């Protein structure tokens, strides 16, 4: 009798569906201008971008750049799902990235490491795209970073 119960459990286990995926993939474009991260010696310099997956963005908004720069994981731990550092971003460039976003993530935030961080807009954040064709756009111009959800323009012939 025990063998039959075991066989029935194994058969039922084989019929179960796959679990829901833990991650979703989103596209992100990073665009910089020719004057990104200017310093006294150079008209432009590469930047490092830290990307955070957060459940809440309030603490990220409140923390000063230098605190995030030196102890981001400790300070954001209550809301931090994941952190990654993107490859170095060069001036006058456009790069594409595919992000693996955890299902618990509500916000994407970035910290751009500018030379003159005190006179920059180094932090930006956004909610996740809600439509399949949308993507994230990180724009870095001079010493200012902005992160937006972009909906591509649809062509008129796609209406038919």
Q: Which features characterize this protein?
A:
160 residues; alpha+beta; Immunoglobulin-like; 4-stranded mixed beta sheet; 3 helices; 8 strands; 36% strand; globular
Describe the fold and architecture.
The protein has three helices and eight strands, in the order H-E-E-H-H-E-E-E-E-E-E. It is an alpha+beta fold. It has one domain (21-153): Type VI secretion system, lipoprotein SciN (Immunoglobulin-like, Sandwich). The protein has a four-stranded mixed sheet with strand order 4-1-7-8, with no helix packed on it. A hairpin with a 2-residue loop joins strand 7 (135-141) and strand 8. The radius of gyration is 21 Å and the shape is globular.
Quick structural gist:
The chain has 160 residues and is an alpha+beta fold. It has three helices and eight strands; from the N terminus they run H-E-E-H-H-E-E-E-E-E-E. The radius of gyration is 21 Å and the shape is globular.
